[in-house]
Known about the structure:
Elements: H1 2-48, H2 64-73, H3 85-101
Amino acid sequence: MEHFDILKFFFWLFQPVYAVIITLLTLIPLLISIAFFTLAERKVMASIQRRRGPNVVGIWGLLQPFADGLKALIKEIIIPYQASRFLFILAPSITFILSLIN
C-alpha cells in the first residue's frame, strides 16, 4: 500500500511539469511551422511582384523567420509620456482576452 501512495505522490508532484512539457512540445513546432508558412507567403507575394523576397538571412532566406522573431523580442516598448501607463497596457490586454473568449 505504501508503494501506491508514493507513486500517487510523484504523479501529483510531476503533473504540472508534465503539462508544461506537453504544452511546449505542442507549441514550439506550431510556432515554427507558422513562421515558415509566413516565409512561404512572403516568397510567393514577392514572386508575384517579380521580386526575390526575403533572401538575406541564411540560405534562400530560411532563417528570416527567426530574425523577425528576434527583432520582435528586442523591440523597445514605447509608452507615450502623458499617457496613463496602466490604461496603455490594460487596453490591448483586455482586447486580446476578449478575442480569446469569443
